[in-house]
Design a protein that fits this description.
Elements: H1 7-31, E1 39-46, E2 57-60, E3 63-72, E4 82-89, H2 90-93, E5 102-106, E6 113-117, E7 132-133, E8 135-136, H3 141-146, H4 150-172, H5 176-183, H6 196-221, H7 225-231, H8 237-267, H9 271-277, H10 279-304, H11 308-315, H12 317-326, H13 333-345, H14 371-375
Parallel strand pairs: 1-7, 2-6, 5-8
Antiparallel strand pairs: 1-4, 2-3, 3-4, 5-6
Helix pairs in contact: 7-8
Length: 376
């Protein structure tokens, strides 16, 4: 079958249409939906753009409303900014005001860059076409990390990160108060778990103690009690301090005297030092005291049971009356005999001294008669 003369033409037309479609697709990717919608051009001047590319999204309050049309330097060689031209959909351009601020943001820490526009004040006029919007320059992290002292900052951040990792590890193992609240006390099944309620009770108790301390300090500030009298100027605290000082001096003097007494005792060779230094002497003295106390207890027991003369004098009333009749106040026969012998040996002297009645005549508890009546 002979080849048609129209075949090369058809192939050329198909290739041309394909290239047109490809060019249209590339243009659409580079300019977004600008080809299909009416738009406005706005400008922004940045000192740096941190990798912003042509075609990057332009957003207003997080909503994409356009794209970056071009990025270039200004014609003036002395200008220190980068000119960024943006096309904005005309339907959204009415929301961009003259005081709207343009800033370069990134999607995530290392994501693509885009231009974020703030809405501005609704009372401000709408930004006209080709208007230059105020800008906020992006942070230059590279320059920040190259500044002096940044190494210490990074080292501190790494140390803080390591400490945080250890802290989280301790919390997951149940160590510390926060660890007990999260994971419970490790290895102590019988212990009550630390909860927010227990911490609340502890804080309430601490609050109660704080209230009591506050009340105590209020009493002290009002001069009540010893501490208040010493601190507050509302009472005669100086007199109290003088009294305390005098008491302290007396205590100090007493302590000095006690020290002197202890020194004298330690330097002497008397009974006290013998008891302290000579153990054999102290033991012998204690044995003698034990024997003497035992003998004295035996004597007192005999007297109490009426044995011996002393026991009879104490326990037998008749012996008491016999002795009293012998040396009675009114002249017992023993006393009369002494007077007679005295008269024979001293004929020219006066009568012997009369016995002194030491106490007035009182009724005898046994007989009911007075001492003078018994002598008659």
């Amino acid at each position: 079958m002979p080849e048609s003369s129209h075949s090369p033409l058809r192939v050329g037309i198909v290739v041309t249409i394909g290239l047109g479609i490809l060019a249209f697709a590339i243009a659409s990717i580079g300019h977004g939906t600008r080809l299909f919608s009416r738009s406005e051009i706005l400008q922004a001047h940045f000192r740096r753009i941190n990798g912003l590319q042509v075609g990057a999204s332009v957003r207003l309050a997080g909503v994409s409303i356009g794209a970056v049309d071009s990025i270039s330097f200004p014609r003036q060689a002395t200008a220190d900014y980068v000119l960024v031209r943006m096309w904005i959909e005309r339907s959204a351009a009415v929301r961009v005001h003259a005081d709207s601020v343009a800033s370069i943001e990134s999607i995530g820490m290392l994501g693509d860059k885009y231009v974020e526009l703030s809405p501005g004040n609704p009372a401000s006029p709408v930004a006209p076409s080709n208007a230059v919007l105020p800008t906020r320059n992006p942070i230059n992290y590279e320059a920040l990390l190259e500044e002096k002292g940044t190494g210490d900052l990074i080292a501190n951040l790494m140390a803080i990160s390591a400490d945080m990792r250890q802290l989280l590890h301790a919390i997951t193992r149940g160590r510390g108060i926060l660890g007990e609240m999260v994971s419970g006390a490790p290895g102590q099944p019988g212990r009550k778990p630390l909860t927010l309620a227990s911490i609340r009770r502890s804080l309430d108790q601490l609050n109660a103690v704080t209230i009591q301390l506050t009340a105590m300090l209020r009493e002290i500030n009002h001069g009540r009690g010893l501490a208040g009298a010493m601190v507050s100027g509302k009472v005669n605290g100086e007199a109290l301090l003088r009294s305390l000082s005098a008491t302290a001096r007396r205590v100090r003097d007493t302590s000095r005297h006690i020290d002197q007494l202890v020194t004298r005792v330690s330097q002497s060779q008397g009974l006290a030092m013998q008891l302290v230094e000579n153990r054999e002497f102290a033991n012998r003295l204690m044995r003698n005291l034990d024997r003497s106390s035992a003998a004295l207890a035996d004597i007192l027991q005999k007297i109490d049971t009426g044995r011996g003369t002393a026991g009879l004098l104490v326990n037998d009333p008749s012996l008491y009356y016999q002795v009293k009749g012998f040396v009675g106040d009114g002249g017992g026969w023993g006393l009369s005999m002494v007077r007679g012998l005295y008269s024979l040996t001293h004929p020219f002297s006066g009568p012997p001294l009369q016995p002194v009645n030491a106490c007035p005549a009182t009724p005898d508890r046994m007989t009911g008669t007075t001492a003078s009546q018994g002598n008659r």
